[in-house]
Automatic annotation (TrEMBL):
Region of interest called Disordered, as start-end residue ranges on this chain: 1-93
Pfam families: RRM_1
Domain RRM intervals: 100-178
Organism: Nannochloropsis salina CCMP1776
GO molecular function: mRNA binding
Name of the protein this chain belongs to: RRM domain-containing protein
Superkingdom, natural source: Eukaryota
GO cellular component: cytoplasm; nucleus
One GO BP: RNA processing
Residue stretches in coiled coil: none
Lineage of the species this protein comes from: Eukaryota, Sar, Stramenopiles, Ochrophyta, Eustigmatophyceae
Length: 184
């Protein structure tokens, strides 16, 4: 945001959002500065009143009060920077912080973590398996996240386990994290 200019005034608001005093100048000290805040727990909200070329406009400062210049199309914030670095490159897969994660869907509700580790361990070292349970029933929700150290191991697991049966149900296997398409 821009800093205050010498011809700007600030007006403090009390906790209910009301200005202290009747008009803008009544809440200012003789030097033209706002009075110090009595509560140190929360900073006061302030308004800037600009006097430029005879026009008066109020600018609200603080969270949730952004000007249209700070926003992109449709009132949304401008897009964020995309970080480069280690990624999946081709294939659209993205590496998580600790390894390559694949998502296994279509798991039987009575599937056990040990069985998933054994089946996917045939393709490489399984670093971690996350199987969420339904709180009501205590059974598996039907999916698991399996983490591998190396991308080639995860790719082999996707190719080897896609469409295979576990506990009599066909499982689907794909990357858990995908990179955004170029140009977006």
């Amino acid at each position: 945001m821009s800093s205050l200019r010498h011809d700007d005034e600030e007006v403090d608001f009390d906790e209910e959002g009301e200005r202290g005093g009747g008009d803008i100048t009544s809440s200012l000290h003789p030097e033209g500065h706002p009075p110090p805040s009595s509560s140190s727990s929360s900073p006061p909200r302030a308004l800037k009143k600009r006097k430029s070329e005879g026009q008066t406009s109020l600018h609200v400062k603080g969270r949730g009060h952004r000007s249209q210049e700070d926003r992109g199309e449709g009132g949304r914030p401008h897009s964020f920077e995309v970080l480069g670095g280690e990624g999946g490159g081709e294939g659209g897969a993205a590496k998580s912080i600790e390894g390559w994660v694949i998502m296994v869907t279509g798991l039987h509700e009575e599937a056990q973590e040990d069985e998933v580790v054994d089946r996917f361990g045939e393709f490489g070292e399984v670093r971690n398996v996350q199987m969420n349970l339904d709180r009501r029933t205590g059974f598996v929700k039907g999916y698991a996240l399996v983490e591998f150290t190396l991308r080639k191991e995860a790719e082999a697991a996707i190719e080897g386990m896609e469409g295979e049966e576990m506990y009599g149900k066909e499982v689907r296997v794909d990357w858990a994290f995908m990179q955004e398409a170029p140009g977006r």
